[in-house]
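Table S2 (continued). Query chain:
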Amino acid sequence: MGGVEKVMYDLLMGLAAEGVKCDMLCANGDKGSNVIEVAPDCKVVCTKTMVKKYATMISPQMIPTLRRIASQYDIIHVHHPDPMAALALWLSGYKGKVVLHWHSDIVKQKKLLSLYLPLQRWLIKRADLIVGTTPVYISASPHLAGVQNKCTYLPIGIDAVEPDPQKVQELRQRYEGKKIVFSLGRLVHYKGYRYLIDAAKYLNDDYVVLIGGAGALYDELQQQIDDNGLNSRVKLLGRVSDEDLPSYYGACDVYCLSSIMKTEAFAIVQIEAMSCGKPVVSCDIDGSGVPWVNSNGESGLVVETENGEALARAITSVTTDEDLYRRLSDGALLRFKQMFERKAMIKRCLEIYRTVLA
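Corresponding output:
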């Protein structure tokens, strides 16, 4: 569950397939502790979560667990932000190499950051190498300003999404005659869905905007749709199952990422859409890697944040200019293959490990 966890698991399985003996230690939500053998010489070690606070799993059992097993490893690869993992490492007595994977700054949880800052400073100093998901985010993070000499980047990689042609056809028939704009994510503030809904006011009846995902803002966003008479143009789909999700990528004409804050550091959904050859419309979030992932004029269009009209103009441009659409569609697929395939992420991660050990 979640983007960081998915990256961790994909790295685990990819490295194991390359013959690396590796394990993954993580908190287990509200479930108990257990060990899951996922491949030869490869397991997921789950520790029980006591409580979830400030979007952080508090799992005290992680501390003695890591202390017990830490000496088995040449490298401990820590994914940030995870204060519990940093605390466990600090108390583990581990003397080996540390790779710090900096997925994002702590942006929203100000109280958590104030408490965590001393430990975060220790973790940055302790790390032998700091890895970001994009060069933009690493260079823009104020917390990493003094350690750029030991920073590099490792783009997230995934296997290409493979839509079921029959399900794609069924979706196209459900919205027959419509240009489909798809977006996916939790219905929370930083995703900027209010601006995507606002964009629908500037689109004509040839378009339908499909927003997949659940979250706290569902009722508020539905009210916005109702108040503006946009029920025929915007549909809140709720949670889209893993089984059905590829069909939405395959059926849509364009993918729109309306996120407005640096909390959105990369957005895996962009590369999922690109793997299907879909142009992406996203926002120019200051300090985020989002506009680096979706290269403006190459894989899609990038517009200013918090501007529904700008989103609508970009969506209209992409879907009404056949030459532009073809160029961006081809560019999206090519950029995915060159930069964001899972096998490339695994290969680059191995190179990083060899560099650290050398």
